[in-house]
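Entry:
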Amino acid sequence: MTIGIIYIGLLAIGVIYALVSGALGWLGDLVGGDIHVDASGHLDAGHFHPISGTTVATFITGFGGGGIVGHYLLRWTLMPGLALATATGLLLAAAAFGVLELIFKQTQAGAEYAVGEVVGREAEVITAIPEQGTGEVAYIARGQREKAPARSADGGAIPRGRPVVIERVMGQTFYVRAGGHEMEAPRPTRG
């Protein structure tokens, strides 16, 4: 058995893996199920591990393809052919990792946010805040409209529809002060 046959076999294994993975994914979409084989490729939400089933299969495919080019097309000897096969496999696996990492960061980032991110932002009172009481505000966080119980920072009443600024958060309650772009008085212009 020559090295060329090994290269062809590795290329075939990688291509078959890709076709079977794609077919199972398509079949899962078609029948509405979730069919997948997980090779423990996730570290946590939004991150992809560099050594996973996908990157290993991509390396094997690239190794086989690079080896075929080196052995059959360039007619290189064993060591330069192995170097080309290894470099091709590593390059393709690194590219696959980079693309998948980018995809997972974008799609699994979610709408979670730290409460501190909303301090200083504008909100709108959607349930009036009575004097020394609790109402409700709506605000935008990570592109989504959210609601939270709110109290006036100075204890005064704030009517529904009034723009406010979130000053601090204690527990689940937002402490707000009247303000925002609708509250600013127009500035006189000099002519």
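The helical segments are 3-31, 53-73, 78-107.
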